[in-house]
Specification:
855 residues; 30 helices; 15 strands; 51% helix; disordered N terminus; Protein-PII uridylyltransferase
Length: 855
């Protein structure tokens, strides 16, 4: 065969121009454009192959006939003994604008090596000259098979081998051999392939939950789709095919658009690129883009999990059969499961009505009739989660297609099974995902569609909205023994963020939706009202405890009025903890837990009519109070700042299963004078101390007693900080005190020093954070005006706020500072110089001044 007959010739105007025209067409990213780009590239490479082969013939000439009986002379030109083969993504025709060209120059053993080298140079160099990335190799069929046996990634690429030019019989022989090798070696290679996937997940995370996902390497990405193709090629197992083709298309379309938007071969969907990629794909915004990507990733991840579970089952069954054969032939038994544990002969153990366990999965009993039993989907899900088993995908598919819809409101059994599912702990997550994969969740709860796969652009949150809600229910299940109505707690936990799919405040919107959902699933009016109230106020306790003065009676009374009764308060307390634990490590700590517990205790006293109790000596804050009073007395005696730096509550200890952020406690007592807050905050910033939380309190003359020793004769500002070093070690208290003294006497210009440091920082491009928000909280206190500040955390932020308040001429009674991830959430209790709350117009003026200072 003459290999030149395959060439279509170079495209008009040259390959580079034709490629540019194709990528700049109005045609959006999609399978059609990728296929066209692959065809265009095939034609160009085939022409290069033909031209290079002809040149090799011209340079090397024609060999003389071998002497009779003598050795065969090597052929000088690869006319029939060579082929150009696309492998990997190019072999699949998935050619993105900046994809590598994965090429194999295949030849037989009879071809002259010099001719092969000349042929390779004639192909590789034109590719490099155009600046295209090239992953290339030159091998015989035997060499390719040997390399594949040694390198799993090479073998995966060869599974997608596709002929481009040259001798097609070589490509066919290679494909046949590689597929046979793969199927023969599958029991050994598939565990290796799964280990590679697990390592990728550890390194790159779950694509469906990442704000800047790697479309290729993260779990649920393009690499997993390639692995699923390889598993299918092994003939041992196959992935659920529903939705996979669409998921692949969505991920590839996103990557194509990302390549064109950045001009780079990148798979990471960075924040700064998302708006442009969304616009190029015709989507509303970056959130719509992420949701589209998450939906595809969730489909792939579920198929991946199901497929590997099936691979494990098949391999265990093979091992068991091998062991049985060994026993029958007198050999040693295998290490697999006992015979009869797979297929139709597997033992079936009842789990619930219509649900049994078979081969490590929850499946439908043979007598189950989904079309006559509308509660069966929830019963099967609850039974699987309670048993800690995955719900068989075949069972879920049958339930999705055959089960009758539940009546509204749900019958009592359906509600009980639903609560059982929510309270099953960590296994709930996998079962919930199985139901979602077949659309059963949105069929049961139509409002769930609004939060499904919805991203949360907040560094504190680790999950999408829907997964966070499920995780909160899981956490609430562990706290259900603390409340009298665990069913209401679990349902409220699942629904607490349901309002995030709608405009407006999600707590207010969520209250309305939760009321409808609770009634839908069969709760009575009173219980429906409780669930709605829990959703409405699910942030009340933690926000009040960390941002309000708990010694102010108005603070406690406001919470009591909102909650209404001790039982609801107990539910809200548990929901608060579950929500924080399901958010991420930065959302909950021993410090926040103690503040919330203290607030709950005070509100309980109000709701039960008990007189306010003094804090006992068992909590960390109570234990520190005598030391703080001694600091205040010492500050009054010396007339200067007194500092105490201590480890405080151990930060490395797990709280609720989550590690706490690193930090130490710093207490500063200073007789009241102008400029204390900006000076102290500025000194901390200069020493590169990040403020995790802070409590600033003005101690009046009768509050500064040091036991029976000293009598306070003036107000003292007590600043209690939790700080952590941005890097390096913590400074000692003496250095901090010395710099604070210099800042107070004016010899240390903190503002200038911070400005110099900020100017020296490299400018980083990224998404601009939302602007700061400064508001006056109405009726938050009877004794002071409460100013709330929400801003992006940054070095010197509290210093700028303090300077603005100082310039406004107001008096700071107390402050409550919280840092949640990259967000600062602060509350300042202010009065005029007369000690009274600020008039409305004056408070608004101060708020504007602080807003202006924050830019």
């Amino acid at each position: 065969m003459d290999i030149t007959a395959d060439a279509a010739g170079p495209p008009p105007g040259g390959y580079a121009a034709a490629r540019t025209r194709l990528l700049r067409q109005e045609t959006p990213s999609g399978p059609g454009r990728r296929a066209a780009l692959a065809r265009l590239t095939d034609d160009w490479l085939a022409a290069l192959f033909t031209t290079s082969a002809a040149d090799a013939v011209t340079r090397n000439g024609t060999p003389a006939d071998p002497p009779p009986g003598g050795p065969r002379a090597p052929r000088p030109a690869p006319r029939r003994g060579a082929a150009l083969v696309a492998v990997g993504g190019y072999g699949r025709g998935e050619l993105s604008p900046r994809s590598d060209l994965d090429l194999l120059l295949l030849h037989d053993e009879t071809v002259d090596p010099k001719a092969v080298a000349a042929l390779a140079d004639g192909i590789w160099y034109p590719v490099w000259d155009l600046g295209l990335a090239l992953d290339h190799s030159v091998r015989t069929t035997a060499q390719a098979r040997t390399t594949a046996r040694e390198d799993l990634k090479v073998q995966l690429g060869l599974l997608d081998a596709r002929h481009i030019a040259g001798d097609p019989s070589l490509t066919t022989a290679l494909r046949t051999a590689v597929l046979a090798d793969w199927r023969n070696q599958a029991p050994k290679r598939l565990p290796e392939l799964r280990a590679l996937g697990d390592e990728r997940t550890r390194r790159h995370g779950e694509l469906q939950f990442l704000l800047e996902p790697d479309l290729k390497e993260a779990h649920g990405g393009l690499r997993d789709l390639t692995a699923l193709r390889a598993v299918a090629a092994s003939w041992l197992a196959d992935a659920p095919r529903e939705g996979l083709a669409e998921a692949r298309t969505r991920l590839l379309d996103t990557r194509d658009t990302l390549h064109l938007a950045t001009g780079r071969a990148t798979d990471r969907l960075a924040l700064q690129e998302q708006d442009q990629v969304a616009a190029d794909l015709g989507l509303a915004d970056a959130d719509a883009l992420l949701r589209r990507v998450y939906e595809a990733a969730r489909t792939v991840a579920y198929a991946d999990d199901v497929t590997w579970r099936e691979v494990g089952r098949v391999l265990r069954a093979r091992s068991a059969r091998s062991g049985l054969r060994g026993l029958l032939t007198g050999g040693r038994p295998g290490r697999g499961r006992t015979p009869g544990t797979s297929g139709d002969t597997a033992e079936r153990t009842p789990l619930a009505e219509g649900v049994v366990e078979q081969d490590g999965e929850a499946v439908l009993a043979r007598a189950a009739r989904p079309q006559q039993d509308p509660v069966l989907p929830l019963r099967a899900a609850a039974a699987a989660a309670q048993a800690g088993l995955p719900l068989s995908p075949h069972a879920v598919r049958r339930l999705a297609t055959a089960a009758r819809p539940l009546p509204v409101p749900w019958p009592a059994e359906a509600r009980e099974q639903f609560v059982t599912l929510l309270g099953a702990g960590p296994p709930t997550v996998g079962v919930w995902e199985a139901l979602e994969a077949e659309g059963l969740i949105t069929r049961l709860l139509p409002d769930w569609e609004r939060v499904r796969c919805r991203p949360q652009r907040n560094a504190v949150h680790r999950w999408t909205v829907d997964r966070h809600c499920v995780e909160t229910a899981v956490r609430a299940g562990a706290l259900s023994r603390r409340v009298g109505r665990p069913d209401l707690l679990l349902v409220a936990a699942l629904l607490h963020d349901i309002g995030k799919g709608w405009p407006g405040d999600h707590s207010t919107t969520g209250e309305v939706i939760a009321r409808d959902v609770a009634a839908r699933i069969g709760f009575g009016p009173a219980d429906t009202g409780t669930v709605a109230a829990l959703v409405r106020h699910h942030l009340l306790l933690v926000e009040t405890a960390t941002r309000r003065d708990l010694d102010d009676p108005a603070t406690v009374q406001k919470v009591a009025d909102a909650v209404g009764d001790p039982e609801t308060l107990g539910l809200l307390h548990a929901l608060t903890e579950a929500d924080a634990l399901a958010t991420g490590p930065a959302a909950w700590s021993a410090w926040r837990a103690s503040l919330v517990t203290d607030l709950v205790r005070r509100v309980t006293d109000v709701l039960t009519g008990e007189p306010p109790r003094q804090p006992d000596d068992s909590g960390p804050s109570a234990a520190a109070a005598p030391g703080q009073r001694r600091l205040a007395a010492e500050a009054l005696r010396t007339g200067g700042p007194v500092l105490s730096l201590s480890p405080g509550t151990p930060e490395g200890a797990p709280v609720g299963g989550e590690p706490e952020p690193v930090g130490v406690e710093l207490h500063i007592a200073v007789p009241e004078r102008a400029g204390l807050l900006p000076a102290a905050a500025g000194v901390l910033a200069l020493h590169r101390l990040a403020v995790r939380s802070a409590d600033l309190r003005l101690l009046e003359p009768d509050a500064g007693r040091a036991g029976e020793e000293e009598e306070a004769d003036g107000p003292v500002l007590l600043l209690s900080w939790r700080v952590a070093a941005e890097y390096g070690s913590l400074p000692d208290a003496a250095r901090l005190r010395a710099d604070l003294l210099r800042a107070l006497d004016g010899s240390l210009d903190i503002t200038a020093r911070l400005a110099e440091r900020e100017a020296a920082y490299p400018r980083r491009h990224g998404v601009r954070p939302p602007p700061p928000r400064v508001t006056v909280a109405p009726a938050a206190s009877r004794h002071a005006t409460v100013l709330e500040v929400r801003a992006q955390d940054a070095p010197g932020l509290l210093h700028r706020i303090g300077r603005a308040l100082e310039a406004a001429g107001v008096r700071l009674r107390s402050a409550h500072i919280s840092t949640l991830g990259a967000n600062a959430v602060d509350a300042f209790y202010l009065t005029g110089t007369d000690g009274a709350p600020l008039p409305g117009s004056r408070a608004a003026e101060v708020a504007r001044a602080v807003q202006s200072a924050l830019g």
